[in-house]
Structure formats: structure tokens, C-alpha cells
Amino acid sequence: MRFAGLLSVLAGLIWPIQAAALAWAIAGWIAGDMGRTPWAAAIFVAGGFLRAFCDHRAGQILFDAADQTISHQRAALITREARARAPLGSAEIAALIVQKLPLLQPWITRYSIAMIKVAVLPLVLLLISFWFSWIVGLVLLVAGPLIPVFMILIGMAAEQASRRQMDEIGSMNAMVMDRLSAMLDIRLLGAADKALADFSDRAEALRIKTMAVLRIAFLSSTVLELFSAIGVAMVAVFVGFTLLGEITFGSWSAPLSLGEGLFLLLIAPDFFQPFRELAAAWHDRAAGLSVLAELDALDGAERAPFLGEARAARPLDGPLTLSLAGVVAALPGRRVTLPDFSLKRGQSLALIGESGAGKSTGLAALAGLVPLADGQITVCGHRLDHETADAWRARIALVPQRPHFPDQPLYAWLDPDKRHTDPWPALKRAEVDQVVLRLPYGLRTRLGETGGGVSGGEARRLMIARAILSGRELILADEPTADLDPDTAAMIIRALMHLKENGHSVIVATHDPDLAALMDRRVEVGQ
Ligand SMILES: Nc1ncnc2c1ncn2[C@@H]1O[C@H](COP(=O)(O)OP(=O)(O)OP(=O)(O)O)[C@@H](O)[C@H]1O
Ligand SMILES: [Mg+2]
Predict the structure, then answer these.
(1) At 451, is the pLDDT very low, low, confident or very high (cuts 50, 70, 90)?
(2) How far is the CA of 355 from the centre of ligand 1 (A)?
(3) Which residues cross the membrane (predicted)?
(4) How far apart are CA 352 and CA 482, in angstroms?
(5) Fewer Cβ close by (within 10 Å): the C or N end of the chain?
(6) What is the pLDDT of residues 14-47, one digit of tens each?
């Protein structure tokens, strides 16, 4: 970054040399000395090439730096949010990753360089101007600093406007997600027109906020152009009248020569150039800062991380045992106290208790998916912590209440460990084989995120087939029979009992008295 700054300052410093060569050649023509022209032309062209090279190289370095920063941030965000979600909608996080992070690029590439140039180039050109004429120096000295003052004033407004625009982008995305997931209800309730009207309202709000940002951007460049135009015009008037002999003061001893006057005229616009670039980059800065503010807010958000790295690991050694002592699970903004109990290989247990007591939280804690505020979970003789969690999870299969199907073929989903066992016996065991046969592409069907194509009960039976196939010893099932008809519930109970008879340990969280009665023990949560 610093090297890129150096290169662009160097590129800026070449112009006075080119301008001097040009002025020298023109002064030569007037004096009838054409011999200077080839030299001046050579210097001018060489300077031009060098300048272009420096600018190009600086641009390359900056774009690479920006790309790296953005992809690094993006990867960090995705890994972190996948591990432990902040209390923010997925649409908003997607907006941040896809739409807002790239806004850091112009900020990194343009703004920081403009800042470095503003700190060096105007000062150098000012000193050169003062060297030839104190009046030109004075004009630049007065017109120059007015620009940053105005820009700071405008900048404050720009930042606020940008932040409002970012918020609107985020909530627009959240709304799209919300309406898409409720599409069926919207159709059934005949609310499509209302939803459409909501969208156009939101789009209009986003338009207004975007226009506000643009207005400020245009205003800041107008202010700048005004000051630089006045500054350059005053220098031109002074130089013109001096050369005509109308003005005899302003330069140090002798009046300005034609060459000196031309030189001053040529470098005056470049005195304002860095300010111009800064103004153009000013709203990049505003956008960049509001993205940073969002990233900071996300960094500071309270989140419940899970234990371990979520990597494939070798299963934990030793016979399967599990015990809880004084465990308090720490959910965001809530503590859930869990009862003490222990379990050995082949045993089964039902977590019962009223809704909201903490049964699901208990299962998640047993899988190391919820951090503990107090107490200890011991698994296979080890404390369940960051070191042991992945290895522990390699020995358990979780059957959640609402299965989530990733976008992959069923056979791949059924066999995450790539053991290539024949899935049909397990599917038959879970009484879901007929369902798979009915799917359009059988085992090659992709069910997708929402499990489209199978019912809730079928999805749960697929989940159990997967648990059977995995060969994992402990099955954690959350409300496996909830909201199912008695026949389907019976199928699921049969499959679970089969697992139990084959030496698996089973823990279910359930309201179903039939299922609870079939387990060896019942432990009440929330007592
Ligand atoms: N992600 C979360 N953040 C904050 N609080 C939560 C979260 N998940 C659950 N809770 C709270 O923790 C408590 C226990 O929830 P849990 O889902 O474990 O109950 P449950 O016994 O499984 O209930 P149900 O029988 O309805 O499934 C509830 O009061 C719930 O509001
Ligand atoms: Mg629950």
C-alpha cells in the first residue's frame, strides 16, 4: 500500500517537469530558438510514459490489495456466520457479503491514495509557485484549504446518507426472503397485490436514499470544481496581465518571463487535482465506513458458538458413556438449567418436560452445539470441550425435528462419511424405501434446502435411515414423533426401537407418552 502511494506521488511529481519542458520549448519558439523543441518533446514523452507506468503499477497493487482484503473478509464472515450465527437475518448477511463488501474496493483503491497525494503534491506545487511568484502562491494558498473545510462539512452528511442507504439495502433483502418463504400464504390470502405494493414502496425508499447519496457526491464535486476554477482563473489573470506589463508586482525581483508564466499556468490546475480526486473518493469513503460500521457491529454481536471446529475427526476412543453434572446451557440472552443424568452404551432415555423447558437445548448441548455457562458434560471419560467435540460428534447421529436437506443427491446425503454401504437395508428399516422409489430420480434426487418432494414424516424417516447407515452409536432424536399421524409415528418408533435393540444408545426429547414409555428411563427437564 505504501509503495503504491509512493508510486502515485512520483507520478504526480513528474508533471511539473513535463510542464517545465513545455514552457521552456514555447519560450524558445518566441525567442526563435527551435533547437530546444526536440529535447523538450523527448522529456515530455518520456515523462508521460513514466507517469502512466507509475499510475498503472500503483493501480495494480491497490486492486490486488483490495481484492485480498475483500475475499479475506468474505471468507472470515462466511466461516464465522456458519459456525455461530449473529442475531441477523440470513438475507442481511448475504447482502453484506455480496453487495456491501465490494464497496470497500473503491475506498481502499481510491481514497487512501487520494489522501497521500493530497498530503504531498499540493505542498510541492505551492512551494514551486511561491518560488516564482508570491501572488500565485498566495492565490493557491487561499483557494486550496477552503476545499477540505467544505468537504469535511459535506462528508458528515455523506456518511449518514450512506449508512441509511446500506440499511435500506439490508432490509430490502430481508423482505425478499420473507415474502419468498411466505409465497404460498400470500397467494392463498390473495395478498399478492399488497406484497407487490410493499416491494415498490421499498424500491422507492431505496431510490430516494440512493439519490440522497448521489446528490451529496455531486454537491461535493461541484464545490470543489468551483474553488479550483476560481483559483486557476485568478492565476491565469495574474500571469496574463503580468506578461502584458499591466501588473508589475507579485514576483520577487524581475517580472515573470513568458516561460515562467506558462509554467505557472500549467501547474496551477494540478495543484487542485489531488483535491479533486479526494472529493471523488469522498463518498467511497462514506460507503466504506458504513460497511466497516456494519462489520464492527457484527463483530460485537452476541453469538452462541459451538464447541470444536466442525471438521471430520476420528471418533473418540473408549466405550460410550455420557454424564451431565450441574450443566447450565448458555443461549443468547437465556440460561437453561439441565438435570444431571448419565447414560451407558445400549441404554435409552427420554427427556420430557413442558414446551420451552429446554429439551431441544439439552440435546444440542449433548452434541456440543451450545456453549455451557456452568457444569460439565463428560463423554467417553473426556470432558466435552473444543478439543473433544468433533471426535465426540463422530460417534453420534442427530435427528432434528425439522430435517434440513442440503442441495446434494440423496445417496451422497445418506452417506456423509463416504463409506459406500448399500443404503437399501437402512431405508427399509426406517420404512422409507417405498418413498425413495417414488422420488423422480430415486437415490439421485436432490431434495434441496427445504426438503421439497417429501413430507415431514418421510423426511424424519430419511433422517433415521441416515442415522442407521452412519453406524454411530448414540442417536439423539428431537421430537421424532411430533405432529405425525399414529401410523407414521409408529413407523418411526419401530425404527428407533430397532436401533436400540441393536445396541445403540438412544436419547429422545419428546412429548409423546408412548415413545417415552418405551425408553429405559425418563428424565424431566425444567424441574
Ligand atoms: N436460539 C435461542 N436463543 C435464545 N433463546 C432460545 C433459543 N432457542 C431456545 N431458546 C429458549 O430456550 C428455552 C428452551 O428452549 P427449547 O427449544 O430447548 O425448549 P423445548 O423443551 O425443546 O421446547 P419444545 O417442547 O417446545 O420443543 C425456551 O425458553 C426458548 O425460548
Ligand atoms: Mg424442542
Answers:
(1) low
(2) 8
(3) 35-54, 111-132, 138-158, 216-243
(4) 13
(5) C
(6) 999 999 999 989 888 888 888 888 889 999 999 9
Residue 328 covered by a domain: no
Provide, rounded to the nearest whole percent, the portion of the chain with pLDDT above 90: 38
Q: Which three cell numbers stand for residue 172?
A: 430490502
Domain count, the chain: 2
Q: Say yes or no: CB of residue 356 within 6 Å of ligand 1.
A: yes
Task: Read off the pLDDT band of 328 (50, 70, 90).
Answer: very high
In a 3-state reduction of DSSP, which class is residue 348? strand
Same domain, 28 and 100: yes
SS3 state at 477: strand
Q: Which atom of ligand 1 is nearest to the CA of 357?
A: 21
Of the two residues 379 and 221, the one the predictor is more confident about is 379
What residue numbers bound the domain in which 421 lies? 344-370+384-524
> Are residue 276 and residue 365 in the same domain, yes or no?
no
3-state DSSP assignment of residue 15: helix
Q: Which of 331, 398, 402 to mutate to test the pocket of ligand 1 (most atoms within 8 A of CB)?
A: 331
Q: Which one has a higher pLDDT value, 474 or 257?
A: 474
Do residues 399 and 479 lie in contact, with contact meaning Cβ atoms separated by under 8 Å?
A: no
- State residue 339's pLDDT score: 94
284 shares a domain with 350: no
Centroid of chain to Cα 7: 31
